[in-house]
Amino acid sequence: MSGALVLLSGGQDSATCLAWALTRYDQVETIGFDYGQRHRSELEARSRILRGFRRKFPGWATRLGTDHVLDLRVLGQISETALTRVCDIATVGNGLPNTFVPGRNIIFLTFAAAVAYRRNLKHIVSGVCETDYSGYPDCRDDTVKALQVTLNLGMEQRFVLDTPLMLIDKAETWRLAEQLGGNDLVELIRSETLSCYKGDTQHMHAWGPGCGECPACNLRARGYAAFVARSPQ
Predict the structure, then answer these.
(1) 170 by DSSP, 3-state: which?
(2) Which single residue of 117, 127, 188, 207 could bond 14 by disulfide (Cβ 3.0 to 4.6 Å)?
(3) How many Cα atoms occupy the beta-carbon half-sphere of 81 within 13 Å?
(4) Where are the beta strands (DSSP E) in the chain?
């Protein structure tokens, strides 16, 4: 069990994690989820990212294996959130943004572990982060560590849930991409990944496509500005 399965959503964080895994493991597969999200743009971004990795990084392309996309639309059927239905993005009574899909990351990691079990892959790589994020409780380090214990007990395995972005901010995530794949990787992530909660691909900014107004766009924009400011001229 020396390979890795990377949760690839189509966004900046998961694309960076894919590069991270490709520098460490000889066999890397990817997995994505159709969970009834209100826009299809992030699923389309996944395909562009994978094509870009294979085209721009031939050394990584030899390690990049099967891509799995699972139908989890039942999650969207039981979720009344801004990511699964058309409504304004806002903070709700519990203090969380209404973009929070309850159980989403827990379900994603559980299904990823089931696929990893079948594919004989030990490492499951996720771009969750508790440092520079929207406050989702299932992105926290404690949640992931508890889930790793549960999955290993329940499947009688020794999976490792890798979270390389857990304790870094968005500027450091851009910097990590630069360290892993240079300017080519930074540009691929900037131009092809989509983090926007509204799935806006019509507006292009210095930091990439997006509405420029939602929390995800704001996080990405601030991180990119800080990354550029820290970069040598």
Answers:
(1) helix
(2) 127
(3) 23
(4) 4-7, 28-34, 64-71, 123-125, 160-162, 204-205, 208-209
- State how far the alpha carbon of 129 is from the alpha carbons of 1, 84, 85, 90, 101, in Å: 25, 22, 24, 21, 16
Q: What is the pLDDT of residues 190-210, one digit of tens each?
A: 999 998 988 899 999 999 999
Average pLDDT, the chain: 88
DSSP-assigned letter for residue 139? G
> What's the Cα-to-Cα distance from 224 to each of 104, 180, 189, 205, rounded to whole Å?
27, 17, 11, 11
Q: Residue 57 has what DSSP assignment?
A: -
pLDDT digits (tens, 9 = 90+) for 177-188: 999 999 999 999
Q: What domains can be seen in the chain, in order of their start residue? A: 4-195 (3.40.50.620)
- Find the farthest-apart pair of alpha carbons in the chain and give their distance in angstroms, rounded: 51
Whose structure tokens read 């973009």?
A: 99
In tens, the pLDDT along 80-130 reads: 554 454 545 545 455 555 455 667 889 899 999 999 999 999 999 999 998
